[in-house]
Specification:
There is one protein chain. The protein has 310 residues and is of the alpha+beta class. It contains 13 helices and ten strands. Strand 5, helix 8 and strand 6 form a beta-alpha-beta unit. Helix 1 crosses helix 2, helix 7 packs parallel to helix 8 and helix 11 packs across helix 12. The longest helix is centred in the N-terminal third of the chain and has 31 residues. The chain is elongated and about 110 Å long. The model has no long low-confidence stretch (mean pLDDT 80).
């Protein structure tokens, strides 16, 4: 049967018939007996699959083997690259220190080599006595070499006697210390070339950063908090302490109005949870609020967060 006759028999156009024949031939479901005629023999799907798909499967298997060989060759070069200068240069920017002793060793080494300036930001309240004893010798050695030292604490650190004693020692030798109510990142920067920050998820670990752009970002963040911070005066007056306490209360008001819970506020202000709860309770009483939600409403209603006009 020729194409026009077959198309008429099936009720389709000659173009549609030609497309169908090409698809069936491509799938191996038809075999053309003579290229010069339109005589075709049907082929069973099983045989068609064997004849049509086997070459494709064979080619796919060859490609899979080539990929596997290439992967093995590339992976065999990983140890060589990691021991190369290129890898060391690439990894130089960031170094993770998971062990406390490694952190102490790095801080001691960097402090010993510091020549111009060290910036330190220590959030939270007062520092532990053993930590301060370790830090004071290192810091005094830098100050004696003429290194400029600036240190940031939160206001709550002023009420820690060991911290106050440490501040008194280093300020006598030229160190500068300020406190702020705002929360900031734990940070040490040596000569604006190396930054040491806390390791996320590991309170004893740290991350050493030498990538210039990241170090510069850390320095700018420090300068922003430093500009708005208050000098840490060891022999302070009652009026100054009350002023700082008011500053802490204002920060607490902002956090309370934002809906934070007591634990989160305590972390932000660097005070204990009990101290935070006591301050929150006092604020609720002074506002006449029966709930934190009502307190937030009253704080905004009375404009307690507005900056005073000059």
């Amino acid at each position: 049967m020729d194409v026009p006759s077959l198309a008429g028999e099936l009720g389709i156009t000659e173009g549609e018939l030609t497309d169908s024949l090409e698809r069936l031939l491509g799938l191996g479901l038809l075999h053309q007996e003579d290229p010069d005629t339109h005589r075709y023999t049907p082929v069973g799907p099983e045989s068609a699959a064997l004849l049509t798909l086997l070459p494709l499967e064979t080619e796919l298997r060859k490609q899979t083997e080539l990929i596997a060989h290439a992967r093995r060759d590339l992976e065999s070069l990983v140890p060589v690259y990691h021991n190369s200068l290129a890898w060391r240069q690439r990894a130089k920017g960031v170094q993770v220190l998971s062990e406390l002793q490694d952190v102490r060793n790095v801080l001691a080494e960097r402090a010993a080599n510091c020549q111009e300036e060290v910036l330190t930001a220590q959030p939270g309240g007062g520092r532990r006595t053993e930590v301060l004893e370790e830090a004071v010798e290192r810091d005094e050695a830098m100050l004696r070499r003429g290194v400029r030292m600036r240190t940031l604490y939160q206001h709550s650190a002023r009420f820690s006697l060991p911290t106050a004693a440490y501040v008194e020692r280093i300020t006598l030798q030229g160190g500068e210390v300020r406190t702020a109510s705002a929360e900031f990142m734990r940070l040490i920067v040596f000569d604006r070339r190396v930054a040491v920050i806390s390791q996320a998820g590991n309170s004893l670990g740290a991350v050493l950063i030498e990538e210039p752009s990241v170090v510069n970002f850390a320095v700018q963040a420090f300068e922003h908090v430093w500009f708005n911070a208050e000098p840490f005066e060891v022999d302070t007056s009652r009026e100054h302490i009350e002023s700082l306490s008011e500053d802490v209360d204002k920060a607490l008001l902002r956090l309370l109005a934002s809906g934070m819970d007591d634990a989160a506020i305590a972390r932000r202000l660097g005070v204990s949870l009990r101290t935070c709860q006591r301050r929150v309770s006092r604020i609720l009483d002074s506002l006449g609020a029966r709930s934190r939600f009502q307190a937030g409403y009253l704080i905004h209603k009375h404009g307690l967060l507005a900056e005073p006009t000059k």
